[in-house]
């Protein structure tokens, strides 16, 4: 398959490509979670859920591999460095009890993926202690086991966990595509410049494209 993208068309073989959905969790998307504790307006992020859902459904329909990530710490916070915990909102830190349970802690209600994008049987779910999906996770090995060379990214936030994950993926040899309307930031100008910088310099980190051409390619008539 080949779809129009920036800085040039993105070619991929579905059998060797995974859809990677970064941190579409209640902690970032709903009021009362980690994102809001940092002083952000979370309503901006909720707006991309329908676009992500359309791609996820099409990807599932085409039989592609799906990976979901969650930014999640162990309940004892042994994987949360003080350098991370001590920044942010002093009144409500990672591990503190918030309106949706303990902030950014695995298993808590706020740490779950939003219901519209919830993983289904067989899909890979990666809990990650950092911003990048590869740091301190088994993701690279899992993708290698599945023969994956190409990654299509969606999720939040564009300049934090999505960008970090795309950079980690690029350094590990993957060809990454970011779906522009399926990612969002609490700061719209950060999203805009991130999209620009990822694909600058001939695709220094990867490609970006709207989801529409991908949806067309995944439709049974496009395959
Ligand atoms: N704060 C912010 O923009 N993002 C994060 O803390 N994590 C993710 O991007 N998932």
TrEMBL record:
Residues 17-205 form the Isochorismatase-like domain. The keyword Hydrolase applies. The keyword Hydrolase applies. GO terms for molecular function: hydrolase activity. It comes from the Bacteria. PANTHER family: FAMILY HYDROLASE, PUTATIVE (AFU_ORTHOLOGUE AFUA_2G08700)-RELATED (PTHR43540:SF9), PEROXYUREIDOACRYLATE/UREIDOACRYLATE AMIDOHYDROLASE-RELATED (PTHR43540). This is Cysteine hydrolase.
């Amino acid at each position: 398959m080949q779809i129009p993208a920036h800085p040039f068309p993105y070619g991929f073989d579905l059998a060797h490509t995974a859809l990677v959905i970064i941190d579409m969790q209640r902690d970032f998307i709903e009021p009362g979670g980690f994102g809001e504790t940092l002083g952000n307006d979370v309503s901006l992020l909720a707006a991309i859920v329908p676009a992500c859902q359309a791609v996820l459904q099409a990807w599932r329909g085409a039989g592609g591999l799906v990976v979901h990530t969650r930014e999640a710490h162990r309940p004892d916070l042994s994987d949360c460095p003080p350098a991370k915990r001590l920044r942010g909102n002093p009144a409500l830190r990672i591990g503190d009890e918030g309106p949706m349970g303990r902030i950014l802690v695995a298993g808590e209600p706020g740490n779950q993926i939003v219901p519209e994008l919830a993983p289904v049987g067989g899909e890979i779910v990666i809990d990650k202690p950092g911003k990048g999906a590869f740091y301190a996770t088994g993701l690279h090995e899992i993708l290698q086991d599945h023969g994956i060379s190409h990654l299509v990214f969606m999720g939040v936030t564009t300049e934090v966990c999505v960008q970090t994950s795309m950079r980690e993926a690029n350094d590990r040899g993957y060809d990454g595509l970011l779906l522009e309307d399926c990612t969002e930031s609490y700061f719209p100008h950060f999203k805009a410049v991130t999209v620009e910088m990822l694909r600058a310099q001939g695709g220094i980190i990867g490609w970006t494209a709207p989801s529409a051409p991908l949806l067309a390619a995944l439709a049974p008539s496009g395959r």
